[in-house]
Amino acid sequence: MTGPARSAPRLFGRRSWAEARRIADILRKETIGGALLLAGAALAMAWANSPWSGAYEEVRSFTFGPAWLHLNLDMATWAADGLLAIFFFVAGLELKREFVAGDLRQPRRAAVPVAAALGGVIVPATLYLLLTRNVDGAAAGWAIPTATDIAFALAVLAVIGRFLPAALRTFLLTLAVVDDLLAIVIIAVFYTSGLAPIPLLVALVPLAIFIVLVQRRLRSWWLLLPLAVTVWALVHASGVHATVAGVLLAFAVPVMRSRRASGQEAGPGLAEHFEHRFRPLSAGVAVPLFAFLSAGVHLGGLNGAVTALSDPVAMGIVAGLVIGKPIGIMVATWLVARFTRAHLDEGLSWVDVLGLSILAGIGFTVSLLIGELAFGAGGERGDHVKMAVLGGSVAAALLASVILRLRNRVYRRLHEAEAADQDRDNIPDVYQGHVALMDRRADHGNRAGRHHPAEHTTDHPADRGRVDHARHGQGNKPA
C-alpha cells in the first residue's frame, strides 16, 4: 500500500502559525517605522531646499565625541556608523532566527527568497556597471542599487495593499532579510579600506566576553551594553564599517532557550527578547534619524534635478533600482518555479510577483549608506547619488503602487464575494458551495462502491439543512 503523494512545494505558501504571528508583529512595527522614515526624509528635503538650508548643513556637520578615541564625529557620521549599527543588530538577530528557528531553516523554503535576493543583487549591479562603464571611478557604486528598504516598502504596501495575500507580505519581508545579509557581506568585503588589524584583534576580547554572557542567558544591560559599545568602537577604529559590529554581536546571541531542547520543547531565547526590545529603537529612531541626516540634498530647481539625474552614475542607480531589481527577482523566482517542483501558491498570480519585485526596488536606507561609503557624504557626485536613490525609490514605489492597487481591487472583490451571506444563516455562501460539492462527491462514492454506505449519508437534520442551503448557493472561484 502506497502512502499519500507528497505535494509539490508552493512559492509564497502558508507559513507556520508561530512564524505568521512573528511576521505580523514585525510588519506592524516596520510599517510604522517606514512612515517615520518617510517623514524624516521629507523633512530633510524640505529643510535642505528652504531659505534655512544653511542651518540644516550646520546640524549635519556638528561634531561631538571623545577625540582621544578618534570618535569626534559629525552628526551624519554618527548616524551612518552609530545609529545604523542598531539597525544591523536587529537585522542580524532576525537573520539568525530565520535560519536557526524560522522557516528558512528548511532548504526548500529558503531556496526561493535566497534565489530572488541573489537575482535582485546581480542584475541591478550588472546593469549599473554596463551604464557607467565609461565613467572614471563610477564602479565604486555598483552595490548602491542592490538594496531593499523593508520599512519604506512595507509602508507603501500598508497604504495600497490591505487585501493583498499575506503570503506576498511575508515573502517581501523574507526577501529583505536575505537582502540585508548580502548587504552586510558587501559592506564588510568591498567597502573596507585602510584595515588596521590590531583594533580588530583587540575587539575579539570584549566580543568573546559578550558571547559568554549571552550564552549564559544574562540580560543585564549594564554588563552587555558597555561590551557592545567597546566592540563597536574597536571595529570602527579598525577601518571595517562599524555596522558590521552590530551584526557580529547579533550572531552571538542564542536563538533557542536551551541547546538540548528540540522540537516542541525548543523555545525562544535571548534573540527574540533583544529583537523585541531593539526593533522599536531601530525602526522608530535610528533609521528615521539616519534618513533625516542623509536624505537632505539641495535640488537646485527643476534644471538642477535634471542635471543631477543625467549623470551616468545617477542613471545607473535609477535603472538598477527600477529595472534591474524587478528583473532579477522575477527571473530568479521563475527559474525556481521552472526547474524545481515548486509552483505559485493557489490564488496568486505572476502579476502579484511582478508588483512585489518592483516594490523591492525601493532601496533607501542601505543604498544611501553604500552611496556615502562609495562617493562620500558631500560633493557633487554624492548629491547626485542621493537624488538618484530618492528618485529611483520613489519611481519604484509609484510603479509598484499602480500594479498592486489593481491587484488589491481584485482581491477585495474576492474577499467580498467570499464573505457574502445572502441567506443570512451566518455561513458564508462560498463555504456552502463547498458543502454541496462534498455532498455530490459523497453521492458519487455511494454509487461507485456500497461497502460503507452509512459513511456517505447526511442524516443529521442540521447537516441536511446546510446541504440544502449549499445546493441553492453559488460558490466563488478566485480569478
TrEMBL record:
Residues 445-471 have a biased composition (Basic and acidic residues). It is found in: Cell inner membrane; Cell membrane. GO terms for cellular component: plasma membrane. Residues 445-479 are annotated as: Disordered. It catalyses: Na(+)(in) + 2 H(+)(out) = Na(+)(out) + 2 H(+)(in). The chain crosses the membrane at residues 31-48, 68-90, 110-130, 142-164, 171-191, 197-214, 221-237, 313-337, 349-375, 387-406. It is a multi-pass membrane protein. GO terms for molecular function: sodium:proton antiporter activity. GO terms for biological process: regulation of pH. InterPro entries: Na/H_antiporter_dom_sf, NhaA. Keywords: Antiport, Cell membrane, Ion transport, Membrane, Sodium, Sodium transport, Transmembrane, Transmembrane helix, Transport. Belongs to the NhaA Na(+)/H(+) (TC 2.A.33) antiporter family. Na(+)/H(+) antiporter that extrudes sodium in exchange for external protons. This is Na(+)/H(+) antiporter NhaA.
